[in-house]
Design a protein that fits this description.
This protein is α+β, with helices and mostly antiparallel strands and 388 residues long. 47% of the residues lie in helices and 11% in strands. It contains 13 helices and seven strands. A seven-stranded antiparallel β-sheet has the order 6-4-3-2-1-5-7.
Length: 388
């Protein structure tokens, strides 16, 4: 009985697959395709939303959703592959009802935009998706900004068109950078994630994007699709977005500002340093902690810059404050070379300037008090070095 139940369940999930293979590129005139956009979720990796493609043919009783955002936490060396920029995502296919059930369960909003394309282009899209769902082609190397669930949807729609394009790719003065887009999605409750992302991402993240490039962001892509026209007819590409599911999840609580926290830490370190100078003590334990943590961050920055496939982690000017020199300062402390300390102080001042005037890279505002903490401790090393 148990085996029979498993077989019936397997047949239930295979039914849409078998229909899709059977009808291949022969969708009826009643068929349509649409872009599904999902609102942000609770976790950081869901905070940017999600995109998928729906193919519906009521005549053939076909209603499928193609999702390029599937990954497997159980894959070997998952976190190492993610860190190195070699994480495989894949295309998955499910029924429209199952897709909506998942997002209704999470309380996330879903919008739908029907594509205004010809029946031939619709069949082109269906064939592209079906071919892409074959085991040999469904996997791809995920890149958060340049190759993700939204850019794959954008490219599939563009590739299905017959002898026309999705308007013109432009870069306007008002276009935002990748980092600007990250900031929009991390307001309020994800400030610590924003700090982590700002430390990990480099200067390439601050270049202004074209309208096509910032379609990596599902919500932005939905808004852009609403204004996009065909290059030949200048007709809208999609019908106006319709709400399929409304958001029901509870809003996440506001997170404590890392910038404020590090300013408080700076005040404590400054007071300890002044006490150290007054009592002629040398708090080596404090330097070991501050320099050690900074060195660990520098290892992360160097690793992401030089030893991974990530596009936007290089070059990274966080190396000015998260410097590998701090392992030397942690070991030598007041015996550190004065000229090396002065070099690091210049680098710290440059980093502080970049938090205020974000050129050539925007550094997180929390870096300002962090840099001041490091300046404070390095000046203490110079003072005790001179006294000795």
């Amino acid at each position: 009985m148990k085996k029979l139940t498993l077989i019936l369940i397997a047949l239930l999930f295979l039914a849409p697959t078998m229909r899709a293979q059977k009808y291949e590129a022969h969708l009826s005139d009643s068929a349509f395709a649409s872009v599904l956009t999902c609102g942000p979720g609770e976790e950081f990796y869901t905070s940017f939303g999600h995109s998928a493609i729906r193919i519906c043919d009521s005549t053939l009783k076909l209603d499928l959703v193609y999702n390029y955002g599937t990954f497997d936490f159980g894959m070997p060396h998952f976190y190492w592959s993610f860190a190195c920029g070699r994480l495989h995502y894949c295309l998955s296919r499910t029924t429209y009802d199952n897709f909506l059930f998942e997002y209704a369960y999470e309380g996330r909003a879903v919008w739908e935009q029907k594509l205004r394309i010809s029946n031939q282009e619709l069949n082109n899209l269906f064939v592209l998706l079906e071919n892409n769902n074959l085991p040999a082609y469904r996997y791809y190397w995920y890149d958060f900004f340049r190759d993700n669930c939204a850019t794959r949807v954008r490219d599939m729609v563009a590739n299905c068109l017959d002898h026309r394009k999705l308007g013109v790719e432009t870069v306007a003065d008002t276009n935002m950078s990748y980092r600007d887009m990250v900031y929009k999605s991390t307001e309020g409750n994800l400030l610590w994630w924003r700090l982590g992302v700002d430390i990990a991402l480099g200067q390439r993240c601050d270049i202004r994007c074209s309208n096509y490039e910032y379609m990596f962001h599902p919500i932005e892509m939905m808004q852009l699709l609403d204004t996009m026209q065909m290059s030949d007819t200048h007709q809208p590409l999609v019908e106006k977005a319709q709400v399929v599911l409304t958001e029901t999840r509870e809003p996440a609580p506001q997170s404590f500002s890392p910038t404020l926290l590090f300013w408080l830490v700076y005040v404590v370190v400054l007071l300890l340093t002044l006490l150290e100078w007054k009592k002629s003590w040398k708090m080596g334990w404090l330097d070991a902690v501050v320099y050690g943590i900074t060195f660990v961050v520098s290892v992360l920055v160097i690793f992401l810059w030089f030893f991974t496939e990530h596009y936007c982690t290089k070059p990274n000017f966080n190396i000015l404050w998260a410097s590998p020199l701090f392992i030397y300062f942690a070991i030598a402390q007041q015996k550190s070379s004065k000229w090396v300390i002065c070099l690091q102080l210049l680098m710290l001042f440059a980093a502080m300037v970049m938090t205020i005037g974000p050129l050539p890279q925007r550094l997180n505002m929390a870096i300002l008090p962090i840099a001041l903490i490091l300046v404070c401790r390095l000046l203490s090393d110079i003072k005790f070095r001179n006294n000795n």
